[in-house]
Amino acid sequence: MFEAENFAVADGINYEYVYIKASDNSKATFLFLHGFPSSYYCWRNQIEYFSKQGYGCLAPNLMGYGKTYSPLDDDQYRTKSMVDHLLALMDHLNLNKVIVVGHDWGVRPATRFILHHPERALGLILFNVGYRPPAQLNLEQAIENTKKAFGYATMGYWEFFNADDAAQIIETNANRFLDLCFTDEPEIWKTDFSPVGAARQWVTSTEKTTGRASFITDRDFGVYREYASKNMQPKLNWYRSAIKNIDWNDEKDLDPTLKCPVLFIAGQRDYVCVPQLFAGQKKDIPDFESVALDTSHWTMEEKPDEVNKVVENWVEKKHL
């Protein structure tokens, strides 16, 4: 993997990141924002490919991950603050505008980057999780709504992740947790991950097993295990802060329109971030395109060649 650097984006707030400069001014720079429970490592295939094509690549470890600032206080996980951190990092690297790319929880700061600072973005690419305009979350209602829509509660696992003992349970059972995350049977997320109580039951018992997805090598698993076996509470704080609607005061008066070209890449076998959940996003996105690929939740890791070609074609078509 590429060599990581560190920068203090504010007093006492450090970010770990990987950066490869664009070959010349004609090539844009991608800002890659990862999700849970991975790290900037999840973009390894995109960084390798696009840097060879001359594009710039900036991939930070977000709050809670690696050597980046990882407070235990979930009140510090305001997305507007994260966007400010990203802007400070861009300024440090003399980057005026970027193509923002988000996967999973990385979609939260990616979309808010556009809402707060559209002048700093050339375009936006969303993986697996689509755009949700500012709104307050009622977790119980969301669990019931998805249960009615899909026959299972896609967000039931949030209750486990919000529990006081979740971090210790995951750290102690990191292998089983990652087996469930990177299963070669995506459909078991319907029964053994998503429903209320199911993820806790899986991680803490040995009754069921599953194979590992073929695109996750032993090295990949080892990298992710390093992240999952310690300091898990800061990573779970992304869920806690969302449940507390920590961003509402920052976002309630924002224009919800995403004012840049947007590409949404969905995974057809993603049974948590089900593509249908985001069917209405284009009403707030004047320049919107979507592509559905035959993948599970880890789209850019599962089919990197296909993903890279889709992204490259879109970037070229939009002249970004």
How does the SSE layout of this entry go?
Blueprint: E1 5-10, E2 13-20, E3 29-33, H1 44-52, E4 56-60, H2 79-92, E5 98-103, H3 107-116, E6 121-127, H4 139-150, H5 157-161, H6 166-172, H7 174-181, H8 189-192, H9 198-204, H10 218-228, H11 232-243, H12 248-251, E7 262-267, E8 288-293, H13 299-302, H14 304-317
Parallel strand pairs: 3-4, 3-5, 5-6, 6-7, 7-8
Antiparallel strand pairs: 1-2, 2-4
Portion of residues in beta strands equals 15-25%
Approximately how much helix is present in the residues? 25-40%
Order of helices and strands: EEEHEHEHEHHHHHHHHHEEHH
Strand ordering within the main sheet: 1-2-4-3-5-6-7-8
The gross shape turns out to be: globular
Largest sheet: 8 strands, mixed
Structural class: alpha/beta
- The overall pLDDT average reads 97
The number of strands is: 8
Cα radius of gyration in angstroms: 18 Å
Distance from N terminus to C terminus (CA atoms, Å) equals: 27 Å
Low-confidence stretches: none
Structure description:
With 320 residues, the chain is of the alpha/beta class. It is built from 14 helices and eight strands. The protein has an eight-stranded mixed sheet with strand order 1-2-4-3-5-6-7-8, sandwiched between helices. Helix 1 (44-52) packs across helix 14 (304-317), helix 2 crosses helix 3 and helix 7 packs across helix 10.
